[in-house]
Amino acid sequence: MGTLLPTSEEVPEIDYQEGTSSSEQLDAGALFVLKSRGSWLHCGYHLTTSIVAPSLLSLPYALSLMGWFPGVLCLILAALVTFYSYNLLSLVLEHHAQLGRRQLRFRVMAEDILGPAWGRYFVGPIQFGVCYGSVISCILLGGQSLKFIYLLSTPEGSIQLYGFVSIFGILMLVLAQIPSFHSLRHISLVSLVLALAYSACTTAGSVHIGNSKNAPPKDYSIDGIMQNRVFGAFNAISIIATTYGNGIIPEIQATIAPPVKGKMFKGLCICYAVIASTYFSVGVSGYWSFGNQAQPTILSNFMGDGQPLLPTWFLLLTNLFTLMQVTAISLIYLQPTNEVFEKWFADPKMDQFSTRNVIPRLISRSLSVIIATFLAAMLPFFGDIMALFGAFGCIPLDFILPMVLYNVTFKPSKKGLMFWGNTSIAVASTLLAAVGAVASVRQIVLDARTYSLFADV
């Protein structure tokens, strides 16, 4: 113990991270991507970027599937449970660091506590799928934002969605070469400000339209027969779980310079202060203004019969903020995949910027972005697939595993509130994940009838 991860860009001067073993000291993924050099403020920026994303623009739609009381209650409960579960994960990570083994990755954490099979066959694949799925979604959303901006300036424009997805993919191809997670700290700070900016714009736009003479009729009833309402409610739960999802808490905590004790909690406080000021303002104002007519992204409601309901400059600014933040989120969720590639292909005994390490990094990261861009262009209904990721990925990683890992690590008394509270949350979340997965698959099947590959939507 008592050693640090890189404090210099030069490999010979590396002091390895507190509590790591000699085998991990030679791990290029940890050395080059997960550099433990950040402060709790940097941690807060990364957490906010990884959670507060443009997916929050779907919250009015989620509320429309559940109604006022269940919807707002679900928003509050999801915030409380995820804040609690992320703190549990942080405490488990701190505990193992103090015992002499600092866990830098979610899959390593699961392997150490639950056994090798859990990390290799469950947590690792799920986390990789969630992170890479988030990158695909961000590239798709970036392309949609570019197309929206294009159509505002050129209403009769003929460029299709896949063209804009490709343009955004080229931008990501360049930015993906940023070397480490720690290198993104200033980008994450800008992302935090952008999230506040487009959330404020969206809230103001919803309130303005809701009070205008062109305001749509406010109908808060839930459409459809009982079967559709039930499936819609569980689909909404999956959407909300996805908006609060993270899945990379250990990797973010790995960027903090030792000692790590208490720093993650401060970072989470920053993140959830932003969540409180964005999620509820956007969700409530959007649902209040548009009721059960709220679209899967509330920005779509700002257009009526193809005509903007707000000044064009305001819509351009809002979409520009969204576009810029999507770029930062893509970079954050590329880091776990970058770490895997660096571990496989880089040589930790050589300098990070040596030809030996730069060429494999350039190839692996470029291929990763190219494939993600192709999938985003090919599957314009990928938002529905992300609801499935929320059920299969975000709920297990963010609502279930933290409770299990804490109970296994600290072994709280089975007669105490902590044990049964954690167990209850894990069991309830498991049931919600199962039903949410069925609802998400059903929605994908329904939407697949109207969408085609490379569709211009």
TrEMBL record:
Keywords: Amino-acid transport, Auxin signaling pathway, Membrane, Symport, Transmembrane, Transmembrane helix, Transport. It is found in: Endomembrane system. GO terms for molecular function: symporter activity. It is a multi-pass membrane protein. GO terms for cellular component: endomembrane system. The chain crosses the membrane at residues 68-93, 130-153, 159-176, 188-210, 230-249, 270-290, 310-334, 362-379, 385-405, 417-439. Residues 37-439 form the Amino acid transporter transmembrane domain. GO terms for biological process: amino acid transport; auxin-activated signaling pathway. It comes from the Eukaryota. Carrier protein involved in proton-driven auxin influx. Mediates the formation of auxin gradient from developing leaves (site of auxin biosynthesis) to tips by contributing to the loading of auxin in vascular tissues and facilitating acropetal (base to tip) auxin transport within inner tissues of the root apex, and basipetal (tip to base) auxin transport within outer tissues of the root apex. May be involved in lateral roots and nodules formation. Belongs to the amino acid/polyamine transporter 2 family. Amino acid/auxin permease (AAAP) (TC 2.A.18.1) subfamily. PANTHER family: OS05G0424000 PROTEIN-RELATED (PTHR48017). This is Amino acid transporter transmembrane domain-containing protein. It comes from Salix viminalis (Common osier).
